[in-house]
């Protein structure tokens, strides 16, 4: 007899006019790994939040192990044995790693005080499990790299020793080897009866780990099926509701006389950027690769003026380029613009309108006699919305009402409106579905073809190889290799990222044991 | 830019109406154009100062140097006018005061934007320095403190014997501010920085320029306030700005501006100024003892905020 | 025993004892003045009066060291400042109490250390130190009496009298208001009170509002900050009525120039100099009452003339009560305003 | 690191103060200085907790006034009466804090303006209880609380060290305390993680009320009386003190040492003036300059950070 870990009946949820979920009914068997797929804005995160009890559905009921769930905060679901790893990181940066690990339920001593010694011991155990054994439990969570944060978030989920674990894009910033480790942990725990709900936009992961899949589209449950009963293409079609063809746009070879736009020589900054030299040409997409936290972010922020240069020089179109800050970087005739890594805290003013967000960088240029030219503003932002196919109710709606992919397009529109000479794109497709990704890739290629230089940072190797003309791999703040043409392949990128010279030590993900 | 009137503005508006009616019933003598104009004139002083406070609050900062900026500017305008110097006349005396206000705004901006000191403490320190300077100036130079005829006219004059000139000044200051906030890039940047200075910075907003403008404007408004206050009293005197700090900040907030920045409309500030001016008028007419006055003043502010907050939350 | 210089150092009342908390000693002396808040005109002139007084040759010879500090409105800081001067062995520490109840323990400690404490203006009710006091109640009462006398003289028998009170929560303020109202008890005049906080701007606003709400007053008095009230009356075109004013230059001048009657009376900032004189005298072994009552300098409207009651060439904030003639302690305006 | 800076400011200023003091270091000078800083240190501690949650408490002065007025009514008589009086005073402080917390959490008022308004109410209540200065605080008890042990250890300092240490130990070992930091650091994240930060925010304001009551009470010991206007300087000075002590007003991180060092440093700044012979009318100017310099020094680390982004959180 099978036990239903989760039973959803007729779940519906609207945010104002947006129907995020409608009439979703789903049973999930205990001890299975169940993937939920869907484009951006399909309603996956909303479903997770309802399961967790953070969000109350407008209609319908949730039962966990045949017990009805109260939706008045995460505590009720937690009592029933449910733990969640949220899409938005839920770490408290100023608290220590161990405090974060046991944030809601620390081990207690007799009188109800937190038992600090036991907390230390137990946190060591969980950190070891997820591969954070070399992180001291007393470090502030804010000092971890993004990868480490995500791993800590996962450890936090397991530390609750749950019966049901929800993973909402928990691998979005994890490199391959950490994903492998996570899958192994999940496989082990599953054997002991853990039920897992797994959300990811990476199809390969889902194929490796999930027993069954459910596809959401526009808030509706389209189908639930055993993972391997459908082909990759079939699933993609189901997700998008249309045909998805080639993911990466074709590359044209650069003319040999394409002029250098941005040239960097001997650049050092903070202690993360060491003696970096490279040049990027007109029409080129230059990838910046490597494992997370190897100084890529700092390098790009330095070019943008957000970090002070310690040594070295940068030229733009052959002229010295030393911006005192982003304002200076975007001010010139040939602006350099950066798309920040974290769209929620660095990119968007979530409560402000879509139009105002788009126009934030361009305001100075769209004004006459010091006054804003409202007509031009409406026209230019309207153009962009059409051009990028941004799905919105109205340009005056707050940007927070958009799904992740559309939010990212709003940010891209902000850059496009300024027509920069150099685009610095930091992980522009993080947490974005296949369909939208494809649109963004095409857009980037188009920008390059029309004469821009693009610096493209991503931790996703596939993207790096598929999108870039040339790739610089960073390790410990310095460039370890420059890859181009034939040499630009997964093995070389991986090798350079780990700063290793012996290819045989690299674990090939394909050889890993995959639970079925 | 849909004209959407927030609840807090309605509440303040209703409150103003209710108070006017209560005052009218209790003191029938007050039902006169003259009385309302007098209240508007007093409101104008608070209004000008609140216009300065509002911009800084929209950035999520605060300017506590207002009281002594106003005092110092008032002292300077009066002192310069009667100094007998060749350049000193009605107009140059006021200009000197306004320049002083701008200079103080510059110092505040320097601390907040360049030195990165928290505005709450930096401007407090600047306020203390201004107090010190004024004391030295008054004690050591025994300046004249009589207001010039122009200052008198600006503060207490009436156009056609009805409309206070001070009200027109407030109107002018307010219009400039609304223009800047609604129609210039600077205005959009102010709101953006108030929401998130990190986002604004990364989007290429010239954040230092924005902070500089906000504090220059606040300093200017404080100086105008100081000139008006000394015109009103016929002279500048020590600490004359002190009683104005809380009402002007409270008025902005009661009018719906978030002290954490990024949200707020000038219409709200106008209503807030009127509401608090009338409230303190009622309390003084009631001859309420200070204890009661403080309690009523405080609880009214809480009540108004609660009513406007509660409802807007219920929308979710 | 007969007191020294009784015209000036009059005892507060019949029960006032002789000062015993001091041992006569050889000069020259070290004296400190601990002020509270500094940012107001009266306090600035008070400090200048003390400074100029110790520079007078006959006093300079007796004073080895004179230090003045302003500690703000914080009673803990004022206590600490006084204790520091006591610890440093000063002969006398003069102060205006931030809180008149707070200094009993400090006074005991000072007496043990042999330092004479002198409180003035806002005084401490403690028998073990020297109090240089002015009857604030009497000042308010005299304002009321002057108004009442004027009204009688002009055959007005009823109407509203406006009293602009000071900062509430203060003992002196309470005394002033009670004394003021007492004068009008049993008459058919009604006293209307508003709170002016001893502040020109606030006084002006509340006076203007009171005039708007009550119409005409037959008399007006202000505890301190009279300039504001007078300005409000002028702005409202209120007729010139009997006025009980403080002694600020600007106030007296406005009253005089606009035909007001009444009285200008106040506690002179030069009280600091009297406090110094009293301390010096007690060190020299002179008999002193423990609580001295200074007569508040006052000028009736018949004397409101330029050069006598006000000085048109001086700032409005200058306090025209430049000293106490009973003490032969008068300052010239130059002494108090010189650069 | 920021605490270190606060400690440095404190040590420098104190050294200058003792150097210019004609008596140098004596037990009486230490006692007097420590006692004068005690209520400010308590008020600064009160301010610390709301600031850690990312808020601010502008009613500290009002609560100090109210509890001081109450103390002058209740803290005298038999030992039992004194004990219960102290207890009531502290409870009233905590209650005021709870009201602030409730308005902020349930009423969703912004801390700055909510506490500004309740501060006015508390001051009004204080004036009701004590319309003008007076009342009585038990002299024997007060004497004990303001004295100095073995000629080196002021009782006030000892008391502050003990209550600060106890509170801190409790806070770092209770979920409630963790929530105080979390609320100031990443409230949304903490909520998602199942931490009830609302309770922690209320607790922070209750602690603020409690420590304000300690300050009001201690002022009672110093003055042996009550005064409804005594609190006014403490609101703003408590904020200045913690900033000089190196606590960030952004919240989320910090320690009570900031409050303590900051308060003692601020007091030493004004004490230095006593013996420098500076012209009396120039002193407020000098004091303002030192305050501004100290604030600038406290934020120097941010200016020198090559990562310009760090200044924009
Ligand atoms: N707080 C909110 N207010 C208004 N609309 C919201 C809110 N949260 C989500 N939505 C909307 O609800 C829909 C579903 O969003 P949800 O976050 O569940 O999508 P998702 O499938 O998780 O997308 P992604 O892959 O981008 O994470 C979207 O249209 C989104 O814009
Ligand atoms: N666990 C988390 N949960 C929520 N927000 C976080 C978390 N960690 C960091 N943030 C936010 O993400 C942003 C970047 O944080 P991070 O600690 O990585 O900064 P940093 O690396 O010091 O930044 P920089 O390199 O720009 O100085 C900050 O705005 C921070 O508030
Ligand atoms: Mg999602
Ligand atoms: Mg989403």
Automatic annotation (TrEMBL), chain A:
MF terms (GO), sorted A to Z: ATP binding
InterPro entries: AAA+_ATPase, ABC_carbohydrate_import_ATPase, ABC_transporter-like_ATP-bd, ABC_transporter-like_CS, P-loop_NTPase
SUPFAM superfamilies xref list: P-loop containing nucleoside triphosphate hydrolases (SSF52540)
Domain named ABC transporter: residues: 6-243, 256-501
Gene3D superfamilies on file: P-loop containing nucleotide triphosphate hydrolases
CDD domains: ABC_Carb_Monos_I (cd03216), ABC_Carb_Monos_II (cd03215)
Pfam family, one: ABC_tran
Coiled-coil positions: none
Keywords, in A-Z order: ATP-binding, Cell membrane, Membrane, Nucleotide-binding, Plasmid, Repeat, Sugar transport, Translocase, Transport
Domain of life: Bacteria
Family: Belongs to the ABC transporter superfamily.
PANTHER family linked to this entry: CARBOHYDRATE TRANSPORT ATP-BINDING PROTEIN MG119-RELATED, D-ALLOSE IMPORT ATP-BINDING PROTEIN ALSA-RELATED
Stated name of the protein: Sugar ABC transporter ATP-binding protein
Provenance organism: Shinella oryzae
From TrEMBL, chain B:
Keyword tRNA processing tagged: no
Bilayer topology: Multi-pass membrane protein
Annotated TM spans: 9-30, 42-60, 67-88, 94-115, 122-142, 162-184, 205-229, 235-254, 266-285, 291-308
Keywords: Cell inner membrane, Cell membrane, Membrane, Plasmid, Transmembrane, Transmembrane helix, Transport
CDD domains, per the entry: TM_PBP1_transp_AraH_like
Superkingdom as given in the UniProt entry: Bacteria
Protein localization: Cell membrane
Main location: membrane
PANTHER family referenced in this protein's UniProt entry, alphabetically: ABC TRANSPORTER PERMEASE PROTEIN YPHD-RELATED, ABC TRANSPORTER PERMEASE PROTEIN YPHD-RELATED-RELATED
Protein name (database record): ABC transporter permease
TrEMBL record, chain D:
Membrane topology: Multi-pass membrane protein
Keywords recorded for this protein, A-Z: Cell membrane, Membrane, Plasmid, Transmembrane, Transmembrane helix
Highest taxon in the source lineage: Bacteria
PANTHER family per UniProt: ABC TRANSPORTER PERMEASE PROTEIN YPHD-RELATED-RELATED
Regions that span the bilayer: 82-105, 112-129, 141-171, 201-219, 231-249, 261-279, 285-303
A Pfam family hit: BPD_transp_2
Species of provenance: Shinella oryzae
The keyword ATP-binding appears for this protein: no
InterPro entries (alphabetical): ABC_transp_permease
Cell compartment(s), UniProt: Cell membrane
Lineage, broadest ranks: Bacteria, Pseudomonadati, Pseudomonadota, Alphaproteobacteria, Hyphomicrobiales
Ranges in coiled-coil conformation: none
Protein name: ABC transporter permease
Main location: membrane
């Amino acid at each position: 007899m099978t036990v239903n870990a989760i039973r959803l009946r007729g779940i519906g949820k609207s945010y104002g006019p947006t129907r995020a979920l409608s009439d979703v009914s789903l049973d999930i068997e205990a001890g299975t790994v169940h993937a939920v797929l869907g484009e951006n804005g399909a309603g996956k995160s909303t479903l997770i939040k309802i399961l967790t009890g953070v969000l109350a559905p407008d209609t319908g009921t949730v039962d966990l192990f045949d017990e009805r769930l109260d939706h008045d905060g995460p505590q009720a679901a937690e009592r029933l044995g449910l733990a969640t790893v949220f899409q938005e990181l839920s770490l408290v940066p100023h608290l220590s790693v161990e405090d974060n690990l046991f944030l809601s339920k620390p081990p207690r001593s007799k009188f109800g005080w937190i038992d600090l010694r036991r907390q230390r011991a137990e946190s060591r155990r969980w950190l070891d499990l997820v591969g954070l054994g070399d992180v001291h439990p007393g470090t502030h969570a804010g000092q971890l790299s993004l990868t480490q944060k995500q791993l800590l978030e996962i450890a936090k989920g397991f530390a609750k020793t749950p019966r049901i674990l929800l993973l909402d894009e928990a691998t979005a910033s994890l490199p391959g080897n950490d994903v492998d480790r996570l899958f192994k942990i999940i496989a082990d725990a599953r054997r002991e009866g853990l039920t897992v709900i797994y959300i990811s936009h990476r199809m390969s992961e889902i194929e490796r780990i999930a027993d069954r899949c459910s596809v959401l589209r526009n808030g509706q449950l389209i189908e639930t099926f055993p993972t391997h009963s459908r082909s990759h293409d079939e699933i993609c079609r189901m997700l998008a509701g249309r045909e998805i063809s080639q993911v990466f746009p074709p590359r044209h070879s650069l003319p040999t006389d394409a002029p250098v736009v941005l040239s960097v020589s001997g650049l050092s900054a903070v202690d993360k950027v060491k003696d970096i030299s490279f040049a990027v040409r007109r029409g080129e997409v230059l990838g910046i690769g490597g494992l997370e936290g190897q100084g890529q972010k700092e390098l790009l922020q330095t070019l943008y003026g957000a970090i002070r240069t310690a040594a070295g020089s940068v030229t733009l179109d052959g002229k010295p380029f030393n911006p005192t800050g982003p304002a200076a970087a975007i001010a010139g005739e040939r602006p350099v613009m950066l798309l920040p890594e974290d769209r929620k805290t660095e990119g968007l003013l979530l409560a402000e309108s879509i139009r105002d967000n788009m126009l934030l960088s361009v305001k100075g240029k769209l004004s006459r006699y010091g006054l804003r030219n409202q007509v031009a503003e409406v026209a230019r932002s309207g153009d962009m919305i059409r051009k990028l196919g941004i799905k919105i109710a109205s340009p005056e709606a707050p940007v927070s009402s958009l799904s992740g992919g559309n939010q990212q397009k709003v940010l891209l529109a902000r850059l496009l409106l300024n027509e920069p000479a150099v685009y610095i794109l930091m992980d522009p497709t993080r947490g974005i579905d296949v369909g939208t990704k494809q649109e963004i890739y095409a857009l980037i290629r188009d920008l390059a073809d029309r004469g821009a230089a693009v610096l493209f940072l991503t931790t996703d190797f596939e993207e790096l190889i598929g999108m870039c003309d040339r790739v610089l791999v960073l390790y410990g703040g310095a460039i370890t290799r420059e890859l181009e043409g034939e040499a630009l392949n997964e093995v070389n990128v991986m090798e350079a990222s780990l700063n290793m010279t012996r290819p045989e030590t690299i674990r090939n993900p394909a050889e890993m044991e995959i639970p079925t | 830019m849909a004209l959407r009137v927030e609840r807090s503005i309605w509440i303040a508006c209703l409150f103003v109406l209710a108070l006017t009616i209560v005052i009218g019933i209790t003191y029938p003598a007050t039902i006169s154009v003259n009385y309302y104009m007098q209240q508007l004139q007093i409101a104008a002083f608070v209004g000008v100062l609140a216009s300065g406070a509002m911009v800084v609050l929209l950035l999520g900062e605060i300017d506590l140097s207002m009281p002594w900026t106003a005092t110092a500017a008032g002292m300077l305008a009066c002192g310069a006018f009667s100094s007998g110097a060749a350049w000193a006349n009605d107009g140059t005396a006021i200009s000197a005061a306004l320049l002083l206000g701008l200079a103080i705004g510059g110092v505040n901006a320097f601390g907040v934007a360049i030195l990165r000191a928290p505005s709450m403490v930096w401007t407090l320190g600047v306020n203390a320095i201004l107090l010190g300077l004024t004391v030295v100036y008054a004690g050591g130079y025994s300046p004249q403190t009589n207001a010039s005829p122009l200052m008198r006219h600006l503060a207490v004059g009436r156009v056609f014997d009805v409309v206070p000139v001070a009200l027109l000044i407030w109107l002018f200051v307010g219009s400039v501010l609304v223009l800047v906030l609604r129609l210039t890039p600077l205005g959009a940047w102010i709101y953006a920085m108030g929401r998130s200075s990190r986002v604004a910075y990364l989007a290429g907003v010239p954040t230092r320029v924005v902070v500089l403008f906000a504090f220059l404007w606040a300093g200017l408004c404080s100086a105008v306030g100081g000139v008006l206050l000394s015109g009103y009293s016929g002279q500048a005197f020590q600490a004359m700005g002190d009683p104005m700090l809380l009402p002007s900040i409270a008025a902005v907030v009661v009018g719906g501006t978030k002290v954490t920045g990024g949200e707020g409309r000038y219409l709200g500030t106008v209503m807030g100024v009127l509401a608090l001016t009338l409230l303190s008028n009622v309390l003084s007419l009631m001859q309420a003892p200070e204890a009661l006055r403080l309690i009523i003043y405080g609880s009214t502010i809480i009540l108004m905020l609660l009513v406007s907050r509660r409802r807007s939350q219920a929308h979710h | 025993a007969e007191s020294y210089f009784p015209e000036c150092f009059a005892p507060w009342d019949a029960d006032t004892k002789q000062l015993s908390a001091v041992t006569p000693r050889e000069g020259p002396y070290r004296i400190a003045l601990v002020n509270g808040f500094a940012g107001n005109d009266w306090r600035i002139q008070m400090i200048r009066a003390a400074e100029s007084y110790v520079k007078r040759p006959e006093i300079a010879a007796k004073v080895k060291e004179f230090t003045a500090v302003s500690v703000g409105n914080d009673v803990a800081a004022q206590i600490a400042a006084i204790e520091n001067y006591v610890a440093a062995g000063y002969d006398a520490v003069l102060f205006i109490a931030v809180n008149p109840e707070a200094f009993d323990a400090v006074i005991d400690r000072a007496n043990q250390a042999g330092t004479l404490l002198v409180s003035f203006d806002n005084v401490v009710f403690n028998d073990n130190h020297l109090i240089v006091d002015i009857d604030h109640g009497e000042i308010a009462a005299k304002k009321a009496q002057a108004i009442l006398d004027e009204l009688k003289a002009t055959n007005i028998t009823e109407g509203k009298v406006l009293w602009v009170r000071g900062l509430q929560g203060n003992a002196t303020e309470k005394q002033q208001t009670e004394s003021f109202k007492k004068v009008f008890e049993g008459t058919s005049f009604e006293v209307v009170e508003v709170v002016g906080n001893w502040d020109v701007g606030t006084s002006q606003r509340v006076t203007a509002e009171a005039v708007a709400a009550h119409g005409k007053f037959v008399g007006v008095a202000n505890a301190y900050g009279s300039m504001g009230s007078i300005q409000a009356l002028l702005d409202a075109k209120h007729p010139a009525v009997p006025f009980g004013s403080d002694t600020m230059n600007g106030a007296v001048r406005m009253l005089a120039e606009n035909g007001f009657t009444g009285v200008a009376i106040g506690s002179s900032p030069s009280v600091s100099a009297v406090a110094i004189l009293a301390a010096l005298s007690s060190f020299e072994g002179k008999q002193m009452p423990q609580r001295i009552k200074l007569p508040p300098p006052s000028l009736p409207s018949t004397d409101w003339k330029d050069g006598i009651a006000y000085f048109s060439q001086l700032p409005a904030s200058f306090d025209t009560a430049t000293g106490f003639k009973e003490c032969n302690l008068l300052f010239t305006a130059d002494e108090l305003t010189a650069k | 690191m920021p605490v270190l800076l606060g400690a440095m400011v404190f040590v420098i200023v104190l050294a200058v103060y003792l150097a210019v003091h004609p008596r140098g270091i004596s037990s009486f000078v230490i006692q007097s200085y420590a006692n004068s800083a005690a209520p400010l240190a308590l008020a600064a501690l009160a301010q610390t907790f709301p600031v850690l949650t990312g808020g601010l408490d502008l009613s500290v002065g009002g609560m100090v006034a109210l509890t001081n007025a109450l103390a002058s009514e209740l803290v005298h008589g038999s030992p039992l009466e004194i004990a219960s009086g102290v207890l009531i005073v502290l409870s009233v402080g905590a209650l005021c804090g709870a009201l602030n917390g409730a308005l902020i959490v349930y009423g969703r008022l912004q801390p700055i303006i909510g506490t500004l308004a309740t501060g006015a109410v508390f001051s009004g209540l204080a004036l009701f209880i004590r319309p003008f200065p007076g009342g009585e605080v038990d002299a024997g008890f007060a004497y004990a609380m303001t004295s100095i042990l073995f000629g080196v250890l002021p009782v006030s300092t000892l008391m502050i060290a003990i209550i600060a240490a106890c509170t801190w130990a409790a806070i770092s070992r209770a979920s409630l305390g963790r929530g105080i930091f979390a609320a100031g650091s990443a409230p949304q994240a903490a909520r998602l993680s199942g931490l009830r930060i609302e309770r922690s925010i209320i607790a922070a304001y209750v602690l603020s009320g409690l420590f304000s009551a300690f300050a009001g009470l201690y002022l009672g010991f110093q003055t042996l009386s009550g005064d409804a206007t005594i609190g006014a300087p403490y609101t703003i000075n408590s904020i200045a003190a913690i900033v000089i002590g190196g606590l960030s007003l952004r919240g989320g991180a910090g320690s009570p040492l900031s409050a303590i060092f900051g308060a003692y440093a601020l007091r030493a700044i004004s004490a230095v003036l006593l013996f420098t012979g500076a012209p009396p009318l120039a002193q407020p100017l000098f004091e303002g300059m030192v305050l501004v310099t100290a604030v600038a020094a406290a934020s120097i680390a941010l200016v020198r950070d090559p990562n310009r982004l760090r200044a924009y959180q």
